[in-house]
Structure formats: structure tokens, C-alpha cells
Amino acid sequence: MKPRLLAFGAMVLSGASLLGAGASNGPRSVTVTAGPSKTPWGAQDLQGVWSGLESIGVPFDRDPALGTRNLLTEEEFQARQKALRVGASGENIETTNFGRGGAEAEVLRNESRQASLVVDPPDGRRPPRTAESDARQPTFGSFSAGPFNSVNDLGVLDRCVAFAPVSAASPFNTLQIVQAPGYVALRSEVIHETRIVPLDGRSHVSPRLKMYGGDSRGRWEGRTLVVTTTNFNGLTSLQGNAGDRPTERLTVVERFTLVDSNTLLYEATFDDPETWTRPWTVRFPRKRDASGAVYEYACHEGNYGVANILSGARATE
């Protein structure tokens, strides 16, 4: 297992004030204090490595008891921290392979009082699923009960094929941005995926072409980079092997805004009429990683999980 997979079901937002956590969850209200940093060709300079490791622990969906309040009290925050520590304890077998102080050290990076990643709808919860979505075959993966008859019963992340429709939408996933005239490259650490995004106004590729990471096109709206991605193949789930699995009709619109020299505000709106009854949006900040490094996520190397799960299933039979 890889060091950050424990965070699938619990993701944190750092810097809640950037998100209007104590007030509105709907329309963006962002105060930008970043200087006029420009590339040599005049574009807003977003380049660098942007970490969300301070943001492990906030769920996608808000506790219904909080209603439209998206900011935890100190007491609520400490209760969440306590629960996260229990989940990351040494008694959890999935934490034993973690380095850098273990999974508990990862959890304790959480400094946010944000109650949910979802900021729209205002209740901070993903909208209801459609009847078509409920009728689809459920997603399986290494954290499910199986059955495990072949590699096809394992998730695409288990098999080191892909992580999610847009990997940047997971706060624990380190993001690197590289710019060139007319293009932006978005590189995610897990699973070493890089999207090359044209900015010249060209159309998307033919709808007959479907991909794990879709087909991305970008544009500038003032100082915000807006990236629209379509042409998904419907084989990836929102959180690696967990969460909802959208269909080929999914469209994701991402926004990248440099709030200050060390903070990048990230937003993503998911729209799939065959999965959810309305679009929904997540929003969270990323912090500049001074190391400027994204290390290789060598997923296939030493991936004994697939062989062990299948052989264990055969032994059980």
C-alpha cells in the first residue's frame, strides 16, 4: 500500500478563511493579495509544487447536524482530531507501512476547521444520486469484501492504472504546475499522472475518444486558470478505489487562483447527469512546497497487493 491511501475517505481543508468557511459556501469571494507575478510571455505564473498534506482529515460531505455552517468550533475540531488519531493508530494494519512518522503524523498536519470539502450545495453534501447511478454495479477494490476472481475485480488504483478523473481534486495529492507558451502541465504525484492542457481555444478531441483522465482544455479568466475536462471513460472513482464512480458524461471544471505567493486556491465542479441530480463543487487551498520536488510514485514496483489478494481468495476457496 502507498503512504497516502489511508486518506481516501477523510480529506482536510487547510486555511478555512480562504473559503468563506464561516459564511457563504456558494459563489466565490476570494481576496487576492499575490503580486503581479508573470511568466516571460505574460501569463499569470502559477508554477511550482503545491502541497495539500496539511489538509488530511476533512470529509467530502459535511455532518448534517452542522447544516450550512462550514466552520468547526474548537471542540468539534478536537473531536475530529481524536477520531482521526484512532483511525491512524498502530492497531490499524494499513498504517504499519507508513514512513515519515506514521499515519498519525500525517493526520496531525490538519490545522483546518473546515467541515467539508464540498462547498456547493450550501449544506456541504454531494447531491442525491440518480436512479441510474444506484442501479449500476458497485465499485470494488482492495478495501471491499470482493469477490476477487481476477484483476478485473480490483480497482484501477490497486492495479496502478489511474487514480481518479482529476487527481488534483484530492487534497492529499501533491500537484506540480509547469507552464509554457500556450500550455499548462498539471502533474499529480498519485499516480504520476500529467495532463498537458492547451490554452489556445482548440476544441476537445472527438467524443469517441475516452480516457481515464479525460481531455482537458484551459483558458484564463483574469488571473484564474480555468480547466474544463471531458471525454472520461467512466472507469475511475472519485477517490481512488472509493467513492462514487461517474460515467462517461462527466464534465469537470477546475479553477486555479494564486491567492498569495504561497497559496493556490483550488476549486472543482463535477457535473454528471447520470450520477448526481445536480452539479457540485469542492474548494480548498494548496500551499507552496519549498522543496519544489515531486517524488516518483512507483506504483507497479513492489505491488504485491494484487497477487496476494487473488492468491488469498483462492486459498479461502
Write up what this structure looks like:
- This protein is an alpha+beta fold and about 325 residues long.
- The chain has one domain (about 5-315).
- It has helices spanning about 75-85, 100-105, 130-135, 305-315; strands at about 50, 120, 175-180, 185-190, 195-200, 215-220, 225-230, 250-260, 265-270, 280-290.
- It is globular.
Percent helix, as a range, is 10-25%
Q: In percent, how much strand structure appears in the residues?
A: 15-25%
> What's the total count of β strands?
10
Give the distance, in angstroms, between the N- and C-terminal Cα atoms. Answer: 24 Å
Rounded Rg: 19 Å
Sheet having the most strands: 10 strands, antiparallel
Layout of helices and strands:
Elements: E1 48-51, H1 74-87, H2 102-107, E2 118-120, H3 131-135, E3 175-180, E4 183-188, E5 193-198, E6 215-221, E7 224-230, E8 251-260, E9 263-271, E10 280-288, H4 305-316
Tell me briefly what this model is.
The chain is of the alpha+beta class and 317 residues long. The protein has helices at 74-87, 102-107, 131-135, 305-316, and strands at residues 48-51, 118-120, 175-180, 183-188, 193-198, 215-221, 224-230, 251-260, 263-271, 280-288.
What characteristics describe this protein?
317 residues; alpha+beta; ten-stranded antiparallel sheet; 4 helices; disordered N terminus
